[in-house]
Structures are given as C-alpha cells and as structure tokens.
Amino acid sequence: MSVIIGQKEYFKGIGQIKFEGAESDNPLAFRYYDENRIVAGKSMKEHLRFAIAYWHSFCGDGADPFGPGTHHYPWDVASDARQRAADKADAAFEFITKIGAPYYCFHDVDAIDGHNDPKEFGDRVKFITDIFAKKQAESGVKLLWGTANLFSNERYMNGASTNPNFEVVAHAGAQLKGAIDATITLGGEGYVFWGGREGYMSLLNTNMKLERENFARMLHTCVEYARRNGFKGKFFIEPKPCEPTKHQYDYDAATVIGFLREFDLLSEFGLNLEVNHATLAGHTFAHECQVASDAGMLASIDANRGDNQNGWDTDQFPTDVYEWAEAMAIILKQGGLAGGGINFDAKRRRNSTDMQDLFYAHIGGMDTIARALLIAEKMAKHGEMDRLKAERYASFNSGKGADYTAGKLKLEDLYKIAVEVGEPAQISGKQEYLENLLGRFV
Ligand code: XUL
Ligand code: CO
C-alpha cells in the first residue's frame, strides 16, 4: 500500500510564529524569544536549542486515570498504521517549523504504532525513519535525541533491562537496537535512556543488586553497538525518583552520577535533567543542575514544571521565570549545555482542546526560558552575586585555609588553629539580600 505524505495543512490559519517584543499584544508571537539575539556571545537559538517532544505534542490525547482522551487529532484517523504515522509526521514537522524550534525528540512508539513482533516493529521504525529523514532535509529541523519506549508495552511490567526474565531483557535489547539505528540514521545529537520501569515496586520480590548490574550491562551493550555503528553523539540518562515504579534506580542526579561511576560509564554519558523529576525527588531544579554541572554532567534538559500542591508528574509547561533564571545562571556559567538542548517534555491540560493551545503552550515555555537567559546574563554582567559568593569562601584562598584545601593539614593542626583563632566572627549568609537582587533582574 502506498502512503501519501505532505498533502495537508493541519494548523490552518496559523503562520510562522515571530518575535514581536515584550509590548506585543499578539498571543501568537514571542515576547522574549528572539532566536537571532546575541546573548553572552551566542544567539538565543544556539544557547537554548529548543526541541519539541513528539509524544506529548502529537500523540498524547489528554487521557487520565479517570477518563479517556479529549484531544482528537486529525492526523490520527487513517486505519493503516503506516499512513497514520506519515500523517502525524506531516503535522509534527508543520508545527515544529511554524513554532521555529530547531530540534525534535521522539520515542520509537511515538513515531509509529508499536508491534509485538520485533521484526514487524523494526520494519515500521525503518519506514518512519525514512520519512523523518526527508522531512528533516526539507525543513532543516534536526533530531536532538531519540529513545526507545521500554515502559508502555505490557511485557515490561516487571522492568525492561532490569526484568527478572532474560527473554524480556532480550526484547528490550531488540527495541533499543531499532531506536539507536533510527537515531544514527537521523543524525541525532544524543540518545536518551529514561528507565521508567527500571526500578521496583517491592523489595520482597526484587534482587536489586542483579537488576542494577543488568541495567549497567545493557547500557554498556548499547554504547558498544552505537559506537561500532557510527554514533557520534552523547548518551543521556534522565533521572526520576519514582512513577511508574515506587523506586526508580535513576533516582536523581547524584544517584545517577554514582551509578555511572560505579559501572565505568561516566565518560560516555551526560544527564538529561527534567524539572518535574527534580520536584518529585524533593529537590529544586537548580539543585539538580548544580549537582550535574559540578560533575561535568549537565548536558540536556527536559523542560516542564510540576505542581506544588500534588505529588505526581503533571508535565505542565514552564512559567516560573525565577526557577529558570537560577538554572540558566548555572548553565551559562558552565558555557552552555554539553551536547544537548531544551526539550519541552510538557503537555497541554486535558481541557486545552484548541489547536492554538499547542502554540500558546510552547510560546509561553520558550518565552519563559528566553527571559531567564536574559536575566542570567544580567546577573553575570552585574557581578555582585558572583562576588559575594566568592567572598563567602575567601578564607580558603590564603593562609591556613589554602593549606587545608591543598591537603596539608592534619587533625592536630586544626586543633591548634581553633585554639589560636578563638571563636570565629559571625558572618551573614545574606540570603534575603540575594533574593532581592535576583528580583531586581527579573
Ligand atoms: C517520563 C519522561 C519521559 C522521558 C523520555 O517522566 O520524562 O518522557 O523524557 O522517555
Ligand atoms: Co522527560
């Protein structure tokens, strides 16, 4: 059966979204995201490397545990899986081009329906990969990262790479091979592992030691395969503490860094940090960014936000300029994201059912983050925050403090110094002053 592509316009009446400045009244325009504006030596487009998430924007239908989907997509009606996937690709590349995002990200099963036969599924993925390749060439849109969905199929109910049954692990491997092949063919800049079911529901039935070892083994197996087949990009792990499992092995940035170090995977990997996952782990987003950045592992971001009043992964679009300003300050300081970008792993609310809502959602998110970048640049130029932080630790720069950081002092030396200096002077942490300073830049 031949498939028809590129014939329909899905977002009729909406043209290219343009930058119009903060005073614009046009809800379909950017107020802060001006892709060519130079900030700290690079264009905003190069700094932010925005990506559109295929799953939320073109697949997610608004279903929740209490009711079925409310988003009815005109590209989701053909009876043939390949035609439906081609229609979805038309809609996706139209949207990505109109919103002006340079990148997209996808799971294998977002691109085309899954199939239990690994051969048929592999063929489907190859079919849609060819279409994506053509669309990328026509539009200039690029693949930020690809990934395999190893959590939706019921065979993964006990985990994928960490499944107690080796046959399921083999199926996970088959699916990973297909997703890695697609990512290589499409010139993906990264490949993401998010281990939604790589964790446990109860320790009563779980050999955690073997599961973690098997997880690492699968990562090594994938890295070896991808490098042998020409993958030049970076591998990313996306931490999350729980949901759908009670406990996910990739709990947070610090846990993942420890895991990668334990299993000798640090050099191949970076972290893809998600805002809402930080919230679920009981951290601020800035905390996760700082932990990753200090370890040289802050590579990519899934942009969204959670909700302070409930404890699940609401994946709302980002609106918190303060939260992003703190994070952007860390990203700017490390010279930008190492090999990744900012992917909107965010979805419209179930009752946001107009086609325009998808545009409003992304415009708001892109403007929030662009604004944060401008604030971070102002903070850096002003210099007061950096100066105060440096001053706070100045006692380690010279004298006995410098000897201590150089590893020259023993415990007896610390005793002698304590006796000599007497009670240290009280030094204010100036938190409110710094909060006010941040507020001035916002
Ligand atoms: C789930 C999540 C995933 C990953 C990719 O919470 O964030 O969509 O980003 O598998
Ligand atoms: Co994510």
Q: Outline of this structure?
A:
This protein is of the alpha/beta class and 442 residues long. The chain has helices spanning 44-48, 54-59, 81-99, 108-111, 118-139, 166-185, 208-228, 253-262, 275-280, 285-294, 321-333, 355-382, 384-392, 399-405, 411-421, 431-441; strands spanning 18-19, 29-30, 38-39, 42-43, 50-53, 103-107, 142-147, 190-193, 199-200, 234-237, 247-248, 269-274, 298-303, 342-344.
Molecular structure report:
It contains 16 helices and 14 strands. The chain is of the alpha/beta class. It folds into two domains: 18-382, Alpha-Beta Barrel (TIM Barrel), CATH 3.20.20; 385-441, no CATH class. The chain has an eight-stranded parallel barrel with strand order 5-6-7-8-10-12-13-14, surrounded by four helices. The chain has a two-stranded parallel sheet with strand order 1-2. A two-stranded antiparallel ribbon has the order 3-4. Bound molecules: D-xylulose and cobalt (II) ion. Cobalt (II) ion is lined by residues 194, 238, 274, 302, 345.
